[in-house]
Amino acid sequence: MENMVRFIKTVCTIITVVILVSCNFVNHRDGLEKSGKIYNLKVNNRQELLIGSGRMAMADSFLIIVSSRPNGICKIYSVYDNNKEICTYGKTGNGPGEFIQPLLTYARNNEFGLNEINKQELAVLSINETNEGEVTVYEKKRLKAPHQRKKGEWTPADYFITKLDSLHYVSLVGVEEGRFFTLSDSTLLPIDSFGELPVKEDLSSIAARNRLSGRIATYNGRMVFGTTKLPYLASYRICNEKMEKMWSLYYAETGYGVKNGDLLFDKDKARGPLLDLKMDSKYIYVLYLDQLLSDYNYYNTEKSTSNKILVFDYDGNNIACFNLDCRIQEMAVLTQGKKMYGLTQHPDFSLVEFILPDELYKSE
């Protein structure tokens, strides 16, 4: 797991690419005209955590945090018991209940998924609560994504494998137009390739994979994708075993150029990055660092964590902006409890809780 942390830090420190003068700039501002209502959210509760970093998601009333610890990779917290830690699961290794490079990709009801990136596997885990109130995690199954290497060709594997609905999964390939994502069945057998590149210029497959990586969020057959280094969202939904595009947009100003098939970012225009992306029954949540991409600094929390969350409806309308009084790096939403949770590094690594605006969730 230490190797994974070092890898993430290396990626983060080179997140900015300086564009050459000879490139032609492309600027996007198409999502800037209509902005949603601004809500100022204050920290309602803070709890120090004995972990260094992690990803988080909400499964029913359980908050899941997956970190790079050698033991207790998954920690489960009860949001209805003052965010008390109630269960741990998993450790580093290759045996049962062990993981090498787990990526928390989804959580729904009492189930969540860990994508073992280096193995092209998805571990499907379940959170169970006994009549006596004891909470345990058990591994239901591990699914293996097929990956056939072709001699003499670069054949990238799918990653960020995420549950779309009870019968399907989606994953990110990120190499070319029409083959940016994969729709798979319940066993991870591919059904279809789909998806447009966020940029219209011609990119090499390696450049597309490296520069246009991002995050996927899903909810009941709908999917949204956000690129890390471009302020771009795209929405899809499943229909007759095919994924159809609903909309795409740029939600902040950016600038880039293409040179020799590579995507280079304008250091004076490109903004970001995207830090986290979540989706529930009504809204899409974008945790976005509203600064120049060239100012990103993993080792400075003012330059690597954000206090701004953009909220979009299913039609791509920006209906709200949450201004937080605390910078966070990850988020999770408890819609039925009208709460949002975040992981902060300032002053210490902690779990923070915010109360969501009542008017946005009247029908929940």
Number of E-state strands: 29
- Indicate the radius of gyration in whole angstroms: 20 Å
Mean pLDDT level: 88
Strand content: over 45%
Share of residues in helices: under 10%
**What summary fits the major beta sheet?**
5 strands, mixed
Oligomerization: single chain
What is the count of DSSP helices, taking H or I runs of 4+ residues? 3
Coarse morphology: globular
The strand line-up of the biggest sheet is: 2-26-25-24-23
Overall structural class, as computed from helix and strand content, comes to mainly beta
Q: Which stretches are low in confidence, meaning pLDDT under 50 for 5 or more residues running?
A: 1-23
**For the terminal residues, how far apart are their CA atoms?**
39 Å
Explained architecture:
This protein is 6% helix and 52% strand. By secondary structure, it is mainly beta. The strands form seven sheets. A five-stranded mixed β-sheet has the order 2-26-25-24-23. A five-stranded mixed β-sheet has the order 4-5-6-7-8, with no helix packed on it.
Keywords:
364 residues, mainly beta, 3 helices, 29 strands, 6% helix, 52% strand, disordered N terminus
SSE blueprint and pairings:
Layout: H1 2-13, E1 26-28, E2 37-41, E3 43-48, E4 55-59, E5 62-66, E6 71-78, E7 84-92, E8 98-99, E9 102-108, E10 111-116, E11 121-129, E12 135-144, E13 159-165, E14 168-176, E15 179-184, E16 190-194, H2 205-211, E17 214-219, E18 222-227, E19 232-239, E20 242-250, E21 254-259, E22 262-265, E23 274-279, E24 283-288, H3 301-304, E25 306-313, E26 318-328, E27 330-334, E28 339-344, E29 350-355
